[in-house]
Design goal:
three-stranded antiparallel β-sheet, 108 residues, globular, alpha+beta, 6 helices
């Protein structure tokens, strides 16, 4: 591999890391994704556990849904309940959270 090709590969890898962090890297997105590792949760459960206000949480859940990381399920029975869970794509982040937690335990 030439030096230019190697440099291009490194830039591509760095861009993938930056793109990934932009997708999941906000405080609220990370909190919601981390919380949903425990399983399906209702909106108000997530609101309590993350301490986010309703507007912020709603926006974050919409963003994560558009990114394909979280799915939404609505039960129409009275009272109407909305549930959120990680998609397969979202579940694939669980080992990443485990690694970050291990790193934090050692270095922070």
């Amino acid at each position: 591999m030439s030096v230019d090709t190697e440099a291009d590969a490194q830039v591509g890898e760095a861009c993938a890391v930056v793109d990934s962090l932009q997708l999941v890297g906000s405080q609220w997105r990370l909190l919601v994704l981390h919380d949903l590792q425990e399983g399906e949760k209702r909106f108000n459960e997530l609101k309590r556990s993350t301490d986010a206000n309703a507007r912020t949480l709603s926006r974050v859940l919409d963003d994560l849904g558009e990114a394909g990381l979280v799915s939404r399920r609505v039960e129409e029975d009275a009272p109407v309940a909305t549930y959120y869970t990680l998609t397969e794509k979202g579940e694939a982040l669980c080992p990443v959270f485990d690694e970050i937690e291990s790193w934090a335990d050692e270095w922070l």
